[in-house]
Amino acid sequence: MNSLLLFPLDSCSTDLPETVEEQIRLEQEISAWIEGEADLPQLVKEGLNQAEWAERLPPKITGSRAYCRVVERVRKAASTNTRQEAIRIASYLPLVMDLAVNHRFSAAAIAVVLRESDPRLTVHWRVVQKMFGILGIRQELVLDDVKTLLQQDETDSRTRMADADRPAMVQILSDEATQFGLDLEDALQDLFGPINESSFTPYLQMLLFSCVIA
């Protein structure tokens, strides 16, 4: 049942059809659903509802309901996302929940992970943010955590940038931004004035802090 691999199912949460006829029928039902011509098969709904990741959903939201909402929201989020691509993105729901809840990954960081996991996907951080809303994931900033992070970033930046000249600082910041799908090198070059002016150094450091917080 290769089509079942499209769904974020636990290996033991779905009872597979026993006869060849039932297997063929399920494959046809899944194909029709992928094309938007039918509802999600009941067997798949039951498997999604029983999946481990669905246990983390808010009350009254089932795994199948959350999954279908994610597929539709992702498809509508960007004109480049086809229904098939939205289904592939939704198959990573367990990973998205694990990274967001257990490892406090931001939407931007998760988007990078998804693109690296499957280069065929075009995942923007805003798409992941919409998934957060459906899954009931709230990543609220804690003031004390932000202060601690800023202090750590300030210390780390002094170590990394203490003897760096401007080209080196641009490269350091560009490398950080690349991890979030941003290409800032040309824009940063445009920020610099005459070589004897140093007023942009704190600004570059703040941009680095912003990249880390994001």
Main features:
single chain; about 210 residues; mainly alpha; 2 domains; 11 helices; about 0% strand
Report what the structure shows.
The chain is an all-alpha fold and 214 residues long. It folds into two domains: 134 residues, no CATH class; 71 residues, no CATH class. 61% of the residues lie in helices and 0% in strands. The chain contains eleven helices and no strands. α2 packs across α3. The longest helix has 19 residues. It starts with 19 loop residues before the first helix and ends with a helix. The mean pLDDT is 81.
Largest sheet: none
Order of helices and strands: HHHHHHHHHHH
Number of helices: 11
What proportion of the residues form beta strands (DSSP E)? under 5%
Structural class: mainly alpha
Detail the topology: elements first, then pairings:
Blueprint: H1 20-34, H2 42-50, H3 63-77, H4 83-90, H5 93-102, H6 107-117, H7 125-135, H8 143-161, H9 166-178, H10 185-191, H11 201-213
